[in-house]
Amino acid sequence: MSLGQQLAPHLPFLRRYGRALTGSQSEGDRYVRAALEAIVAAPEEFPRDVDPRLGLYRTFQAIWSSTHPAEDAAREEASGDQEAIARARLARIAPLSRQALLLTAMEGFTNEDTAYLIDTSEEEVESLVAEALREIEAQTRSRVMIIEDEPLIAMDLETIVRDLGHDVTGVAVTRDEAVALAMEDRPGLVLADIQLADDSSGIDAVKDILAEFNVPVIFITAFPERLLTGERPEPTFLITKPFQRSTVKAAISQALFFDQSTVPTI
């Protein structure tokens, strides 16, 4: 099997990681393309002593670490541009902390694998994850709407949201309910399942809501690769079912980082 064939199944998930890390479809995909170009240009340098997925993420990490700007954070935040604000916020947290959180909580890597990916120890990974959660939770507070037709999952999501210090505006189980609830009480974040109770679509509900006002959205699906096809539109934030509570917490924290309404007054 060629290297390309070995890496292909992992690309949708690397794209998810890149987008979560940058908060942008275009920016996340740009880093993924850069990693793939580096592999094509020097295939002999690709790590062959580890699982292909680890090698792929390791290459991505090298690209990110070498190009991610950390300076001028204050100036960027003062500019008022949404992506500049996000970069400024992210710069307040050590990049390794942010990466450790997403690699473990969202991408499902073990502490051992994460330590390999970011060149540190397993003990340091634990410390970095705890640090990132403290910093992120201290900077983001919002009101969250949940679109989910499974009562137990909805209750679990509501508990997670409240544990993070956010309020829940309500739970909708159909497209029409979701739109009505959003119009009645505008949320600062939406958690949306894909398949809803009346066979309507959470994607359609989100499109209707976004036609009225901008709000960050996290989609919840058992098949994230089906939403990362390379066609537009695609979601920036995805949670895979069945999910871990830590995954939801990481995704919520990252999504709110890129919401201008939660930026503190300067």
TrEMBL record:
Keywords: Phosphoprotein
Recorded coiled-coil stretches: none
Pfam families with a match to the protein in the record: PhyR_sigma-like (PF22233), PhyR_sigma2 (PF22029), Response_reg (PF00072)
Biological classification of the source: Bacteria, Pseudomonadati, Pseudomonadota, Alphaproteobacteria, Sphingomonadales
Domain Response regulatory: 143-256
Domain of life: Bacteria
InterPro entries reported in the protein's UniProt record: Bact_response_regulator, CheY-like_superfamily, PhyR_sigma2, PhyR_sigma4, RNA_pol_sigma_r3/r4-like, Sig_resp-reg_PhyR, Sig_transdc_resp-reg_receiver
Designated name of the protein: Response regulator
Species of provenance: Sphingomonas molluscorum
SMART domains: REC (SM00448)
SUPFAM superfamilies, per database record: CheY-like, Sigma3 and sigma4 domains of RNA polymerase sigma factors
PROSITE patterns named in the record: RESPONSE_REGULATORY (PS50110)
Residues annotated with 4-aspartylphosphate modification: D193
Keyword match Phosphoprotein: yes
